[in-house]
Amino acid sequence: MTDPILKRALDTWGEKPQMLMVIEEMSELTKEILKNISRGKNNIPAIIEETADVEIMLEQLKENYQIADAVASYKAEKIKQIEQRLNEWDKR
Questions:
Q1: Are the C-beta atoms of residues 26 and 54 closer than 8 Å to each other?
Q2: What does the pLDDT average to over 17-28?
Q3: Hey, which end of the chain has fewer CB within 10 Å, N or C?
Q4: CA angle, 8 then 74 then 66, to 5°
Q5: Residue 19's closest CA among 65, 50, 51, 52?
């Protein structure tokens, strides 16, 4: 983790509460996205806020489980797969 404040938050408030907070923040982002899509609500500021919260909590999740490098590697592979699918799509 690059941010010592996020590491400090994890150390201070503990693993279980912070992992539950990851879930809570993802739920809040989901709710805002649904409001935007389903109800046509103009709530971009709320989506921005909740996205930031989720990103912060995901950093704590990666620190907690010591998985940052593995996630980065898997993410790079997933992006390659997306690129391959896009290239195949373009050939249609």
A1: yes
A2: 98
A3: C
A4: 25
A5: 65
What's the whole-model pTM score? 0.90
Q: Average pLDDT in the 25-50 region?
A: 97
Identify residue 55 by its one-letter amino acid code. E
Q: How far is CA 92 from CA 38, 83, 88, in A?
A: 31, 15, 7
DSSP per-residue letters across the chain: ---HHHHHHHHHH-HHHHHHHHHHHHHHHHHHHHHHHHS----HHHHHHHHHHHHHHHHHHHHHHT-HHHHHHHHHHHHHHHHHHHHHHHT-
- Report the amino acid identity of residue 76: A
Q: Is the pLDDT of residue 1 over 80?
A: no
Question: In the prediction, which pLDDT does 3 show?
Answer: 87
Give CA–CA dist 62/54, Å, rounded: 12
pLDDT at 74 over 70: yes
